[in-house]
Amino acid sequence: MTATEPPRRPPTAQEFVLAELRRSIVTGELRPGEQIRQEALAERLGTSRVPLREALKILEGEGQVAYHPHRGYFVAELSSADLVEVYRIRRLLEDEAVAAALPLLTDEDLAALQDAVEAIEQADAIADIPAMTRANRSFHFLLIDSVGMPRLTRLIRQLWDATDAYRSMYFVEPENREQVRREHREILAAVTARDLPRTLELLHAHQDHAVERVSRVLGH
Amino acid sequence: MTATEPPRRPPTAQEFVLAELRRSIVTGELRPGEQIRQEALAERLGTSRVPLREALKILEGEGQVAYHPHRGYFVAELSSADLVEVYRIRRLLEDEAVAAALPLLTDEDLAALQDAVEAIEQADAIADIPAMTRANRSFHFLLIDSVGMPRLTRLIRQLWDATDAYRSMYFVEPENREQVRREHREILAAVTARDLPRTLELLHAHQDHAVERVSRVLGH
DNA sequence: CATCCGGATATTGTATCCAATCCATGCCCC
DNA sequence: GGGGCATGGATTGGATACAATATCCGGATG
Question: How far is B30 from chain A (nearest CA, A)?
Fold first, then answer.
């Protein structure tokens, strides 16, 4: 779980809108570079523009959307250079997080990781891209959540969000899913053995492959 | 300068409000933990609540304020553990940025750093805390801006923002200002010599001292 | 033929009003 | 006297109406 306490309260309109926006961006329903038409989108979501705008402001603060005053909000777009930068920063932060987390993982954590790997394989089997994206995230965040550094986790999450749309794109191809699936099994083995150097080595290869694949997507 | 192009257009109300909020948080005018009363604050700023709320949403996305639905916004508060975490992440990111930037610094950059150091000393001389805070930031960001990694710079800026209020507090004491002033001179010398190990060593010491001082402030 | 200048139109930005929720106070009941 | 509950006031959340700004297009002008 990602440090969100379960709100027993009915969600506010703006919470709903924010979740919906995130989903739309991740799935590529709202495409990178696309302008967000407030009135049309608000109507489609069944609210007024006010909650929509406030949700957009959060995403602006997180860098998920670009804002041009008096012109509007645009889904953030990644250049190749941006992509390389995102992964470079991710490596810095995730290495630290994993190194700190590895000795702290409990048996329950390992079991949860095992479950996540199986979820990935199931999603792969039925070619359910969104489920695959979710399970993939879930695996990697389980790995680092236990370190108890909420800000670090938050930053890493922001970086993931920035590339999720592209990740969804390459999950479409079965051979990419197959590779991701295999790599997670290997990472899990290294983690279970508490072998930090090996874990990092595998994670780095995992990331490098992701950069390659996304680069291909970016180059059409 | 932190990559903000000069907007030739009259600022919108919400841009003004956002800048004002940031300033108030940095200077401690709005104190950590304090609830932000929207109506009163909006009136004081001469706008309606709408631009204020949108500005608050950005700060929420950046983690500068905490939001509790139906209860309000509160200026973010740092525990000792948070403080240590922030500096730990900063070190990761800034080391990378400085290492990448050091070989790229131009003579103009070095001159600008020189100017920043002098601005720090002037601010110290007349005990102008906000100016000192600004000059301090300016020095450190000049050091990393030239690396041309906008996302990295952005993340580092967020981390700085999180602790600016506390930094302002310890700048009140002359001996702290004196130490900061001296350390910047030393860092500048190492940077000018393009001596990366020495630069990092000095920066680490600089950060460690900051953690110590802020910890004292936190412990009242 | 290219360029510059309005003005119409679409879209965003802000103010105001009302509804929903929370919190404190005081009452009643146990 | 203490704890639960209703009620009033304060505060936030959301909808609507209006103002400000940008964009697009047609026409005048060099």
Answer: 20
For residue A65, give both structure tokens.
């959307």
Q: What's the CA–C1' distance between A71 and D23, in Å?
A: 9
**Partner-chain residue, chosen from A12, A58, A162, that has the shortest CB–CB distance to B69:** A12
Strand partners, A66: A74
pLDDT < 70: residue spans in chain B: 1-9, 220
Phi, psi of B77, deg, nearest 5: -120, 140
pLDDT digits (tens, 9 = 90+) for B87-131: 999 999 999 999 999 999 999 999 999 999 999 999 999 999 889
What are A83-134's pLDDT values in tens digits? 999 999 999 999 999 999 999 999 999 999 999 999 999 999 999 988 998 9
Residues 59-78 of A with CB under 7 A from strand D: 69-71
Residue A28 pLDDT exceeds 90: no
Mutation site for B-interface testing, chosen from A48, A83, A149, A163 by largest number of B Cβ within 10 Å: A149
Query: CA end-to-end span of chain B, whole Å?
Result: 34
* Sheet-wide strand order for B65-68: B35-36, B72-75, B65-68
Please tell me the class of the B80-218 domain. mainly alpha
D21 C1' – B12 CA distance, angstroms? 11
- Going by pLDDT thresholds of 50, 70 and 90, the confidence category of residue A9 is low
B36 strand D contact, CB < 7 Å: yes
The chain A residue lying nearest B64, using CA atoms, is A61
Which pair of structure tokens corresponds to residue B27? 């200077």
Hey, what long-range contacts does A100-108 have (CB within 8 A, 24 or more apart)? A100/A147, A100/A149, A101/A143, A101/A144, A101/A145, A101/A146, A101/A147, A102/A191, A102/A194, A102/A196, A102/A199, A103/A194, A104/A146, A104/A147, A104/A148, A105/A146, A105/A191, A105/A194, A106/A146
Going from N- to C-terminal start, the domains of chain B cover 13-75, 80-218
Pairing of strands B35-36, B72-75: antiparallel
Both tokens of A124, joined, read 């792969």
pLDDT of residue B1: 41
| pLDDT at res. A106 | 94
Q: Which residue is nearest to nucleotide C12 (CA to C1')?
A: A70
* CATH architecture, domain defined by A13-75: Orthogonal Bundle (1.10)
- The backbone torsions φ and ψ at residue A4, rounded to the nearest 5 degrees and listed phi first, read -105, 115
On whether any CB of chain B is under 8 Å from the CB of A68, the answer is: no
